[in-house]
Every structure is written in C-alpha cells, then in structure tokens.
Amino acid sequence: MDEVDIAVVGGGIIGCLTARELLARRPERTVAVLDRDSVGSGASRRSAGLHFPRGATGRVRGMAAYSQQYYAELSSGRPELPIHQVGMDVVGAERAVLDSYLASARPTPATEGVWQVEGGQYADVAGLTGRIAGELRGGAVVHEGTGVTAIGLGPERITLALSSGGELTARQVVLAPGPWIAAPAWRELVAPLGVRVKKVVALHIDLVPAPTDRVVVFQEEDAFLLPLHDRGHWLFSYTCQEWGVDPDALGGEGLSDQDLGDALAVLRAVAPEYAAHCASGRVFCDAYSGTGEPVVRPLPADPRVVFAGAANGSGYRLAPAIAAQAADLIDIPFLTGSSRSHA
Predict the structure, then answer these.
(1) Phi-psi group of 40: left, alpha or beta (phi > 0 → left; psi -120 to 50 → alpha; rest → beta)
(2) 3-class SS at 118?
(3) Whether 84 contacts 45, CB under 8 Å
(4) Of 88, 164, 236, 295, which one is least surrounded by beta carbons within 10 A?
(5) Is 58 helix (H, G, I), strand (E, B) or coil?
(6) Rounded-to-integer distance, Cα 329 and Cα 307, Å
C-alpha cells in the first residue's frame, strides 16, 4: 500500500495509540504507522511507565484523568496486558499535593508530610506498545525499520520518502517522533514549536520489592522510587537538567560516571538506605515543551500535519489523551470538507 488516508510517523506508545484512536473512530480509513526501528523501541522501551494521577495545570490534570480511565478500561478483563496497579505515597507539602493531584486520587494524610493517593499504576510500555501494534495489524499497515527521510507537502497529498527507497503518500500526517525532534525530514517543520530534548536518567536498585511495597513520590524533588514487582527490583528516577542531547548518541552510551553520581546525590538526600544498592540503570531522553504541557497541534507550515508529543517525560501517562486530541485535529477536515480548512 503506497497511498493511505493518514500516516502516523513514530511507532511509540503515542503513535500506536493515535492510530488505534483514528481507526476506532473511522474503521474505513486507511492508516499506516511508520517507525525507523521496531515499534516501542525508542523512548517507550526506556520509559519507567509510571502513571501519576496528577497534573501541574488544569489541562494536564484533565489529560491525566482521561488517560487513567482509558487505561482502566483497556486493562479491564485483560490481565495479560502489562499494566500493574500499585499503591502510591507522596512526600510533600499539603497545598502542593492537594493542588496537583486529581480529586479521584483522594489524597489522604498518612504520616506528617506523607500522603496516600489512589490511581497509581505502571506499565511495561514497550510490551504494551507491541500488543497495541499487534492489534492494529489488519486495520492498519505497520512499517517497522522504515524511516522517513523527507516530507513533501504537495497541494493534494503529502509524500513521505522512505529509507527503504520507496514513497508513501497520505492526505494527512500525525508526527509523533518522540525525542527525534531534529530528524532532517521534519527539523525545520517543527522548529517553530520550540520543543527541546532533555536527558532522562533512572537508577536500578538491586533490592527485591515486597508485594505490598508502594511507589514513593518526592514532590519537591520531582523524583520517585518505583517498586517494579514484575522485574524484581526498584527504579529511582530524578529530574536531570542536561538539555540538547541527541537520542541517537545516547542510545548506546549507557550511564556515565556523571549520570550515576548526580542521581545518587539526589537518592542519598531522599532515601539514603537505597543508595548502596545501585550499580546500573537506564539513560535516554525525551522531548519537552516550553509550557510544561504536551504539544498537540497542526504544524504552522501545513495544518494537514499534526504534531503529537513533547509530553515532558509523561508520554505513557498522557498518551491516550494526546492520541484523542491528535485525532480531534485530524477529524476537523472531515467535518469541514476541506483538508486545509483550518490553515
């Protein structure tokens, strides 16, 4: 198939859920998902996959609530999906917790400065993405190992030049590239969005969590300890401040001495008893907006291309809501009868 209605560029959790949403709304559409690697192999593979029932702004809180309900419905009656419910304790000031967490999280004081909240879960994001992609096949074409090397904005259709040497044309495109913001095919197109790429570092703690162990969120430090019950160890994530990194360079480098030292310094400050058990971890990056909210909008150069991402490290957590908002924008031409009606 070299002509489709909609091409989704990027086969991570956001791209695959967007394709799923598009087909759920209009099953007769032809949809292609393209990824330079295998689906779920980029930021999705390295994600901690933790869902917090919170948001720093009203829009993000609404997106978090939507996504939480979406994942609950997705996993209902499907215990094989790698989505795991987990208890959550938040260490933080009362006002900060009550202002940011959803009402449905029911923040309840546990001890001084610690709040129990409901609605926490984590996922094997790569595994979940692979299952979603598997379900898409038949309704959508999934092109793995197929990079997009150029985007041609023709008057009637958009042409995607492919790394395999062929071309794919589409009436509309959803661009969900994760941290590959600077890819030559779309670097100039997305530049006006002001998206930046930041390193993400997490440590693996070689202690087996007990079945009743809960996530501990350090609100002020923007860090968390996650018991990965399915993997048999803990994960510690903190907010790294190294910007302008290249995802292709980071993919094979692993943790540096600096990464390990910086993360351990934060861990020793919030939970020193875990620091002696850290010798490994994961390092990658994610795309960040300038507002702290995900970017879901038509590109200034052509409204037929919708950007979906820059979720500020919350790609899994907000992916269902991002997908729904992207599908809303894609659907506008169907409602108005013109592919350029909102230019």
Answers:
(1) left
(2) coil
(3) no
(4) 164
(5) helix
(6) 10
Residues 20-48 as b/e (b if ≥16 CB within 10 A, e otherwise) read: bbbbeeeeebbbbbbbbebbbbbbbbbbb
Cβ distance 14 to 315 under 8 Å? yes
Longest dimension (CA), the chain: 62
Strand 215-218 relative to strand 223-228, pairing = antiparallel
Provide the 3-class DSSP secondary structure of residue 56. Answer: coil
pTM value is 0.95
The encoded tokens of residue 203 equal 């440590």
Is residue 243 helix, strand or coil? strand
What's the pLDDT tens digit per position in 107-151? 999 999 999 999 999 999 999 999 999 999 989 999 999 999 999
Residue 95 CA to chain centroid, in angstroms? 28
The CA-based dihedral angle spanning residues 65, 66, 67, 69, taken in that order and rounded to the nearest 10 degrees: 80
DSSP 137-206: BTTEEEE-S--EEEEEE-SS-EEEEETTS-EEEEEEEEE--TT-TT-TTTHHHHGGG--EEEEEEEEEE-
pLDDT class of 228 with cuts at 50, 70, 90: very high
| Residue in the block written with tokens 């009743």 | 212
CA distances from 79 to 74, 84, 214 (A): 10, 9, 20
CB atoms within 10 A of CB 223: 21
One-letter-per-residue 3-state SS of 18-53: HHHHHHHHCCCCCEEEECCCCCCCCHHHHCCCEECC
Dihedral angle at the C-alpha atoms of 307, 23, 31, 197, nearest 10 degrees? 30
Model confidence pLDDT, tens digit, residues 243-288: 999 999 886 668 889 999 999 999 999 999 999 999 899 999 999 9
